[in-house]
Amino acid sequence: MTTGGFVLGRVRLGVQIVALIVLLYGGSVLGHYMSDMLSNALPALACAYDEQTSDYCVLIPTQHQLHHRVGEAIVRLQGFAFTMLVPLLFTFLNFFLLFIVLNKAFCGWICPLGTVQELLYRLGRWLKRPLRYLKPDRIGRVRPIKWLLLLGLVMALPLATGLGVAPHAAGDAFCQICPSRVITTLATGTAEQLAVNTSGWADTTFGALRAFLVGFVVIAALAVRQPFCRICPMLALHAVFRRLSLTRLVKVENERCEKCGICTKACPMDIPEIWQAHGTKAFGEDCTLCGRCAEYCPDQGVISIKTGPFVVFESSRDYYRKRIKREKPDGTAVRKATDKPRRDA
Amino acid sequence: MDYATRTFLLAIVVFANAAAAAASRHAADLPTIVGSSRESPVLLPVAGHSRREKVLRLSGIDASRVKVWGPDGGSGWLLPVIQGKTTVKTRGPRRGGYHWVGVREVRGRYVDSANTVLYFSNPGPAPRGMLTARKSELDILPVELPREHRHYRAGERWDFLVRLHGEPLPGASVRFVSRNGTRERLRTDARGLVSVVFPSDFADLPEPSPGHGHRGRRKAGFVLSVSHDDGESVLNTSFNYHYIPGAYYNKDLRLGIGFAVLGMVAATPLIRRRDKETRS
What we know:
The complex is a heterodimer of chains A (about 350) and B (about 280). By secondary structure, chain A is mainly alpha-helical. Helices cover about 55% and strands about 5% of the residues of chain A. The longest helix of chain A is centred in the middle third of the chain and has 27 residues, at about 135-160. The two termini of chain B are about 25 Å apart.
């Protein structure tokens, strides 16, 4: 696994680029109606606001089910009925089947917005911008935001809209502010999602916030790794079910860890637990299963990514030696080393 | 020029390019042309439908039955018309998506045909078979229908095919009439195709009443109709559906760019090197 020219980071980048192209431009390649077929089959990927995309993010049907099926049904029936929950459960089931297999690997390997932020971060290295780590105390303050967004914008506001107590714009409140909606549609040549809807105060507020977030994320990503991922409700949804997931991060206790900490430096989410903890605690709520901690762990088998009983990747000293010569843990390329193919460490 | 300035300018250039690309997609409003005064036969959707069942009302045409084609085409099936209305249902799970509904009336040498499509939020096959199936002597058919959750939008160009006895009909005069008052006369090309740019004619209408769902969404019906007189009979065929306002209706792109630039400015301190740069 760790011999020869295999580099997990490069494989992941390849997967991310392919996913980005398929999700953003797949509709054009696969045909006008094939996109609908895909969106029925894989309801957890790209943005529903993109006219050309080949699939939909799971957050849009989740919000729509709460808005149209649950909220409006409660109003119509003046009560609660099992039938209104069936479509919602179907949406969640469809979504979690994907999540049970991939779970957080969606964030680290497939999400288009995650890929764009990683590419921007690489651009930041090329432009020699400083790297801004988040200290553990700041991470503690940032982490609750994604849960608030999940509960407030993905669940509460769409439900309130269905109940008729929130404006229609709040029916997909998270999508209203999601920067992916703008960035992925800009990538397909339309700026319509960047435009602010001025037909009402709610639309205008959401549109202004969305545009502001896009600008902030684009620039911040040059210096901060994955700035939006840290508050993304999709990460929170994954976190809820990460213990049930087939794909997971595993870390075994090792006495050498205390003096090292290189795994946290390599982590694009600055997760301190991967260094300071082991066992289930090391697989934190912010993990995106990108595998960089395992790549940069210098000890054999301490950190690994597993799917079911199968080891997808595990740390090893040989791999670490090669990896560190190509790229620093913070993502900065080691230029001299990248020119030569390496056969051994 | 320092790196921060380069980065900032690069981001602005990307946004400006995207905005220009979007602006080029805008099409001009259609000119208003006074068309025929005769009412085209249409099939009008009746509000209050469910996900699996929709009701249509016949207008300008009288018939006892309508014919329905599912998305995969085939020979279709007949449904009764009761008190000028017909109820269309999908035929089970994963048989949803678009359905074509057509009705035909013969009055002496006049043969009228009205057609529309219904969309069911129920997964189903692509409507290619449905669109190619022969409906009547004279057909007017969308080449493509909007994807799931999409609509024809003002400013967009969509092609429609006119067929006579199953063959493309070049040079046919096609009337376009919208509920908002736009009238246009178009002509099919050598392949029997006519391109329709849906008019941006929503501006002067009052705001729709607010609603929980999409009931308040602005929609305008349109009718495309074509006639053909072969000496023995006069064939009149129409296709009616709806379109919605264009991508930038009630939207301000400059405002969006302004807030995005504001966000960029707010994030700029993150990418500036300090005198004593340390990893914080």
